[in-house]
Amino acid sequence: MFFKSMINSDFSKNVLTLMTGTTLAQIVPLAISPILTRIYSPREFGILALYMAVFAIISGVATLRYELAIIQPKSNKDVDRLTVVSIVITFFVSFITFLGVVYLGEWFCIIVSNLELLPWLNLLPISIFLSGCFQSLNYWFSRKTQYIDIAVAKVYRGGAVGTINLAASNIKVDAFGLIIGFFVGQVVAIAILTKKAFRLGFDFNQITSKKCLALANHYRKFPLLSTPGALLNNAALHMPIMLLSRFFEASNVGFFNFSFRIIGAPFALISGALGQVLLQKIATVAPSEVHDFVVATFKRLVLIALLPIILVFAFGEDIFAFVFSEEWREAGKYSTILIFSIAIRFVASPLSMVLALDQNIKVGVAWQGISFVSVFTVLYLAKELPIMEFIFFFVLQDVLMYSLYLCLILRASKQMKYCG
Fold this sequence. Notes:
By secondary structure, the chain is an all-alpha fold. The chain has one domain. About 80% of the residues lie in helices and about 0% in strands. It has helices at about 1-5, 10-30, 35, 40-60, 65-70, 75-110, 125-145, 145-165, 175-200, 210-220, 220-245, 250-280, 285-325, 330-350, 360-380, 385-415. Mean pLDDT is about 85; it is low at about 1-10.
């Protein structure tokens, strides 16, 4: 009965709205992927993968996690103030990133054995700022339950990325077309959300430094506890790209990241939408209702993951060779192993929002620290192995660590049940 009511609720409608937007946003990039793989080489996709890995690690903490706090205040004025706090902090993080690129950019490229990345790092500070702004506005719209506006912005972003990827393909400067497409997509999405936010009544008149500082202090658990954990988690997620670049060829990086992106895209559109709506839901319902909600969602996610696991494991190599050209058969080979990592992340990711709540942050941070140590240790020890064995050990530790993560999530939600 509970499960049925969940499916027919506003929760499911909101998830469907975000899923629809994300799906439409990904249609253009995914549809043109078979064209892009015939235009850009695995090496160029490897450069893009490295850029995105660095971007993802920093952008995940660009707001010092204050974007998660935006969803929580009861006062709309405080919601607006926290959004400004989040964006201002993003500006300073972006400036620090700029200094890092200037003074450490070349050193980093030498460490990951890819000097071709160096020119594109100059775009990184702006990309970080745009990402922080998008995340801040994303949660502002989520707090207002304006999910359709988020969906529309994602659709335009996806369209811009795909269009620029194709239009810039004739500029033969490494991965220019791939990276600049991502950059332009960010700009388009921010422009759309900013314009809509002011139309919906975003109020600058109530924004004062005193009140913003008071809110920043009130929600200080996010930068103090959630940010270190998120940084470790993002580093753990993208460390395989760094280590692959260090110990293997750039084409291996391209195959690995492309496989993860293509297979993970259908999972991500469900997971991302569900996680965002789930956070809004568990922040507003009685604590006693959270556990049943999480368990019902967990069961549904497991069922959704089963069929893709079977299909990719059995036919992944042939599917990649047919759709993306024979040159990309190697990526399909990677996918038959990576599917298990992608699937368990898919199940755990949206449910992890339980650990984003104030009372559970410490548990989430502890796991993120353990995960970081685990993935680094396992992959460093596996660096001398052939590429397929390297990937196998990466997936094995991923499955074990995310199984532990799910246990911690379910335990935390169960404890909340007795707080209501």
